[in-house]
Amino acid sequence: MSNSSRGGENLTASGKRLRVRNATVADIPGIANLSRRVYNGTGIDPYSAAELRGQLNNFPEGKFVVTLDDDVVGYCATFRISGNVCLKPHTWESITANGYGSRHDPNGEWLYGMEVCVDKTVRGYRIGQRLYNARKKLCENLKLKGIVFVGRLPGLARRMRKFGTAQAYLDAVINKQTNDPVLSFQIRNGFESLGLVENYLSTDRDSMGYGAHLVWHNPKIQRDEDGAQVKRYGGRQPDSIRVGTVQYMQRKVSSFNEFMSFVEYFVDVVADYKADFVVFPELITLQLLSIEDQELTPIQSIEALTKYTPRFREAMQDLAVRYNINIIGGSHPTRVPNGRVENISYVFHRDGRIDEQPKIHPTPNEVYWWNIEGGNELHAIDTDCGPIGVLVCYDSEFPELSRHLVNQGAQILFVPFCTDERQSYLRVRYCCQARAVENQIYVVMSGNVGNLPNVANMDIQYAQSCILTPCDFPFARDGIAADTTPNVETVAIADLRPEALHMARNSGTVQNLRDRRHDLYQMKWRGK
User: Fold this and answer.
1) Which element (helix H / strand E) includes 292?
2) For residue 403, which of 380, 376, 382 has the smallest C-alpha distance?
3) Alpha carbon distance 319, 158 (integer Å)
4) Which is catalytic among the residues 117, 139, 393, 466?
5) pLDDT in tens, 183-232
6) By CB count within 10 A, which of 114, 209, 256, 292 is most buried?
7) Is 282 tagged catalytic?
8) Smallest Cα–Cα separation from 345: which of 334, 329, 327?
9) Residue of 51, 115, 282, 373 with catalytic role
10) How confident is the model over 426-456, as pLDDT tens digits?
11) Continuous segment of H or E residues that includes residue 225
12) Residue 177, helix vs strand vs coil
């Protein structure tokens, strides 16, 4: 079965943390309660503790939960099975052994999806997407042919009069002539229809007992059938981290909500490409100063901006969790507890955490116009894709900083920047390329374009955002994984492979990190 209910709680406002992990026996009460909430009123029986215990004991690595702090808000159950069984018409009771999952075949070449259910109170946070991602990752890791299941058609009963037959309804959903809350989501996730299954689950009143027989083929495994495999838009390279850099247009806005609508647009776009990170430019929030009816003095500007800090943090945190993507939130001038103003880059994790990285070296313009002071903390930031580092614009021109981050394990360096003309931009660009070569890391740059005539020191912008690599055989010939057209609002996306960095560091044409002369020089950090 597959069911995704939607409601409307703000998960991040209270600081709760969202996690995806393998289910354990201790989760059985929470999963049972979840199934009761989800299937209440549908005619489908909730899972008993005995059924859930059987599912976990028969194939524990195929069971996943999404937890909001200690509460189970999503559940996914799978098991292995032969194609001779799952690719033929069947019923839910027969293939799942009445819900116990005891037909698990350790030698089965397909992964069967017997359940996905999501709490209706977590509407809009892509809980179902996270569970589908976990299911696909398991399939790929086990090197199985793909995933098969029969999905619900919860919109069928109330639309049967319009379409006449279940097959006509299925065809209309597949052809995007109508929307089904479950099947449409599954099709967007790359599943193909094998046809309609009658009497799949007779108690499912909304689906009238019907189900859509669906299959997803593991892209890492050669297809058996003849003919070319259907191209999947936005497919991932194996073992890669996908990053998207936003070249953002500064334009006048009338409200904070309008500003966030532009930001959310790009988060949505990059998330649709199944990216792990999206990065925005330095000082992106200065756009909020265009709300004012008159030009503010520099001191007034900073005071106005700092008032937006709580709203900005909360809104970006919510987007990261809602769209299931890690956001490097550019930078935002922030008044810190000791009264100083620092230019801080916030990292919003998709599990709800927030990290901060202050700019260490404010530029002369920042000091003159806004009295911004430099921070004194520089840490590698642990993410679900490994350790990363953030250097805000001018900081990238100081090689000691990136070396300090790499010494802590950072493999990707994100550089939000804001430059007014080409010479300023090229200083940052050339230094970022040098950081990629000398540290054998990936560097992702994101800059502003456009202008804000009534905002002091943001008159004009020049940017060509890019994703840079070391220069060696495993990487792009020119050390550029992706870049943008200068001064155009757009996005660049690339897949980055940590394995390629490891190869370059240990067996590359040059091995900058390994060949350092530690007997002659060192980088010693005296800050926090």
Assistant:
1) none
2) 380
3) 33
4) 393
5) 999 999 999 999 999 999 999 999 999 999 999 999 988 876 533 444 44
6) 114
7) yes
8) 329
9) 282
10) 999 999 999 999 999 999 999 999 988 777 6
11) none
12) coil
